[in-house]
Amino acid sequence: MTEGHRVLLTCRKRSEALRAMGFTYDQVADVLSLDLDDSPLLLHRYAHGLTAAQVVAAFNDLDPAGTASMRTARLYDLEGWPEGRRRPSPRVLDLLARIYQTTARRLVTDQIYSSYGSYERELIDAADYRHLDPCQHSSLRGAMPEISRASMESTAGVWPVRTFVATSGVRPGECAALFRALTAEEADVKRRELLFDLALALGGVPALRLLRHLTPDEEVRLAQAVQGSGRVDAQTVTTIEKLIAHCWQLDEAYGPAKLLPVVNAQRDLVAQLLRQNTLMPALRDRVIAAYWALSHLGGWLRYDILDYAGAVHWYQQGLEAAHELKDPTLLAHIHDCLANTLGYQGKPTVALDHAHAAQAWAKESPSRLQQAASCLAFSRALTDAGRGEDGSRPAEWCMS
To answer: What is the pLDDT of residue 156?
Structure first.
């Protein structure tokens, strides 16, 4: 029996005992790391008590097309990187995370994680299979990793105190998680501090994925806007519009509950820019349109988690912005959203009022798509209000 096999048998026995006590596989790997100075990939294999051959077989079963086929020698290389010859790709980490019922991020050290490009880091961050672990409590699924007291204390004094005083509602524990994430992927201390301030102002760790889409110049301009130390120009507004567009993609990655604080923080920032800056009319309209877009997105997210009252509140904020812009397309669309949400809230009469308003504004809109959408929303509102016969002939009502 080889030394490696003896270690595996010992770890398997410890893992079985810890699992019987309700430990997750992630927790078992953490316990094993106290005695073994091995890579996260190897520790997670030990936590499952699997041989390399068993992992290779499971890996290839998950990828029958052979696009990322695995051999035992290659797995050993991956477990030994950077001493080994190969660094695991995001695709490989995704499949191994599924086998080990963990996140891909846990399978690499901070050093390895920082060696990937921004797009690869997004793929790694998105791979989360902890829900497959029967010992993973439902209340902890998708939650932030816990930060130890030692980790918290190690961050003290590293960042200026002002960075912890934020309007975004980020808790101290999330500040520590943000610090760890930035330490892993950004070596330059000055840029790390800039990104920390920006992410903190924009909702915490999830905002990091947004910031990866910005150029260094865009980061600086946005930071100056956040801190109130620079003027708000067209490029700054373009950066904000860029972030809003990428927020819709984050909904797929994080889900509505996690994204809401990010959207709320962005809307607070846009509201702050409107209050504290004197802008030219055209630029001010763009900032108000950004506020409308964030209110619309926030309402959509609230609607998605069945918080209809919250969705109505957000949509009404967007309605005020649309009225200030006097934009018939935006007004029609937000009235459609309100009609749909109020219908689900059990208020068909109020919903029909908004559907009527949407119809009126849609007729002034140059967008034929919006006109069609408002027609459909109007038909639904008629049906919900008990006027099903009228709702079955939307085209006639739309033309009236």
So the answer is: 35
Of 108, 125, 100, residue with least CA distance to 28: 100
Q: Residue 128 forms beta bridges with which residues? A: 103
Distance CA 379, CA 361 (A): 16
Report angle CA 79, 81, 84 to the nearest 5 degrees.
95
User: Which string of DSSP letters, residue by residue, matches 221-274?
Assistant: HHHHHHHT-S---HHHHHHHHHHHHHHHHHHHHH-HHHHHHHHHHHHHHHHHHH
**Span 67-119, pLDDT tens digits:** 557 888 888 888 886 665 678 888 899 999 999 999 999 998 877 887 887 77
Inter-residue contact 32 to 69 (CB < 8 Å): no
96: which 2 tokens? 């191994």
DSSP conformational letter for 108: S
* Distance between CA atoms of residues 244 and 348, nearest Å: 31
What does pTM read for this prediction? 0.59
- In this prediction, residue 100 carries a pLDDT of 95
pLDDT of residue 165: 35
Q: Which tens digit of pLDDT belongs to each residue from 189-208?
A: 787 888 888 888 888 777 88
Whole-angstrom distance, CA of residue 107 vs CA of residue 115: 14
Integer Cα distance of 167 and 269 in angstroms:
9
Neighbour count for residue 71 (Cβ, 10 Å): 13
Question: Letter for the amino acid at 125?
Answer: D
Return the amino acid letter for 169. Answer: G
pLDDT winner (highest mean) among 194-203, 238-247, 329-338:
329-338
Q: Which residue has the higher pLDDT, 368 or 187?
A: 368
> pLDDT-based confidence at 4, cuts 50/70/90?
confident
Q: Is the pLDDT of residue 2 over 50?
A: yes
Q: Evaluate whether 130 touches 104 at the Cβ level (below 8 Å).
A: no
State the Cα–Cα distance between residues 20 and 73, nearest whole angstrom: 32
